[in-house]
Amino acid sequence: MPAFKDRTRRRMSLPIGPYLNLDNRRSSTASTGSDSSYCDTSSDEEGKLPRDKHQVNSSGSSDFCVKNIKQHAFGRREIEIAEQEMPGIVALRQRADGEKPLKGAKIICCTHVNAQTAVLIETLITLGASVRWAACNIYSTQNEVASAVAEAGVPVYAWRGESEEDFWWCIDKCIHSDSWQPNMILDDGGDATHLMLKKYPAMFRGIKGIVEESVTGVHRLYQLSKAQKLTVPAMNVNDSVTKTKFDNLYSCRESILDALKRATDVMFGGKHVLVCGYGEVGKGCCSALKGMGAVVCVSEIDPICALQACMDGFRVVKVNEVVRNIDILVTATGNKNVVTREHMDKMKNGCILCNMGHSNTEIDVQSLRGLTWEKVRSQVDHIIWPDGKRIILLAEGRLANLSCSTIPSFVVSITASTQALALIELFSAPAGRYKGDVYLLPKKMDEYVASLHLPTFDAHLTEMTEDQARYMGLNRAGPFKQAYYRY
Ligand SMILES: NC(=O)c1ccc[n+]([C@@H]2O[C@H](COP(=O)([O-])OP(=O)(O)OC[C@H]3O[C@@H](n4cnc5c(N)ncnc54)[C@H](O)[C@@H]3O)[C@@H](O)[C@H]2O)c1
Question: Is 0.70 topped by the overall pTM?
Fold first, then answer.
C-alpha cells in the first residue's frame, strides 16, 4: 500500500517527538517513488499537498483531510469488496445494530486507513459511535478509501505518504476538535494514546477505555501501567488468540508470498530462504515458502521455537552461517538489528531482503545510507555496493506485506471483530469492572469472534452433552478452554 511524495518538503520539529517512537516511520530520502492506486489520477490540484487544499464533501463538510475527495466512488467500491470477505464484522454489525451498544462513544481511531479498517469504522458508527480517524502508518493509507469515508461524513485525516509532521498533525486534528470530546481510543501502535496523554492530559483523564492492537502499542501500555501512569483501562487485543493465531500466522502465511511476488516477480521453487524468528509470523512465512518449494532455514534465539522449527523440518542456523548463499531473507522477530551491515556485506548479488516483523527496526537500513540507492519500483530499492553488487530491499525495511501487497480481508475481519467487542466491553462495563490497567479480552468473547466466522465455511460445531460438560468441568456454552491454553 505505498505512494508518497517527497517528505522532505514538510520537515519541521514534531510536537512531542522525543517522547514518541518516531523511528517507526522515518524513511530514506532516497524514496520518492509513487505507487498510486488505479484511480489516483491527476487533478487540477495535482502537486498540492493535502493540507494545502480546500476540500469539501457533498454534504458541505470540510472536517477531513485526504488526498482527493473526488476519488470517493472508487474507495466505496474497495470498501464493498472488503465487506464481502469480512463476514464476522458484518454479522456483528447486523446483530448489534438495534441495540446500539456504542451509543455515546466518541472514539479516536488511529489505525491503518484502508478498506478493511473502513469496514470496522463504519461498523462502529452503525453501533452508535462517532469517530475521528487518523492513520497509524504513513505508507499504508488507501487514498480513495479515505475519500469514501470522508464523503460519508467521517472526519478522516490521512493520506499516503504523510511526512512525519503531517503524521502528528493528522492525529492531533483527530484528537483536538472544538466541538467534540473523545471518550475512547482505538489505537494501533500507541501514538494517539501517547499524544493525548502528553499533550492533552485533562482529556486523557476523561477516556473510558483504550483498545490497542499492536505489539508495540501494547508494550508501551504495559510500560505506562508499570510506571503507574495508566489511569484508564486498556484492552490488549494483540494478545487475543483470535488476533495472534490468525493475523500473525495465517495472514502472514498468505501475504509473504504476495508481497515478494508483486515486488520482485521472484519464483520461489528451489530458492534458498532464511526466515529470522520462528514465532507466529515466522511460522506462517516458513510454511508458505516451503509450500512453494523454497529451501527454508530458520534463525532463532529461543530453544523452544528452534525445536519447533526442527520438528517442522527446517534447519536452524545462525544468520552468518548461511547469509552468503541465500536468495531471500525475511525477518520476523519483533527485534532490532537482526540483519546488520556486516550480514548485508556478505549477501550475494540479487539477494532479496524484507521485513515481516516489527516496523523498521529489524534490518539496519541506516547502515546502508552511504551506498547507492536505485529505486526500481515503488517500495523496491536496489542497494548497490561499490563493486556493483546489488541487493533488493523491500519497503526500506518496513513491513513488506503492508507495504508491497494487501492483507487478506477475512483475517482483518477477525481482528476487527475483536476490536469492536473490546470497545463495546470497555465502553459498557459497569464502573469498577476495569481499573487503570491492561486487560485481555475475556475468552468467551474470543470464542464468539471465532463463531461469527464459522458460517462462511458451513462449519458445524459439535455440542457437548450435559454429561460430557460435567465430565470436562465446562459450561456447555463455553468458555471451552482455560486461560493458559495455547492453541
Ligand atoms: N507483517 C505483519 O502483517 C505482522 C502481523 C502480525 C505481527 N507482526 C509483527 O511481527 C513480529 C513477530 O510477531 P510474532 O507474533 O511472530 O512474535 P513472536 O514473539 O511469536 O515471534 C518472534 C520470534 O522471534 C524470535 N527472535 C527474537 N529475536 C531474535 C533474533 N535476534 N534472531 C532470531 N530470532 C529472534 C523470538 O524468540 C520469537 O520466537 C512482531 O513485531 C509483530 O508485531 C507483523
Answer: yes
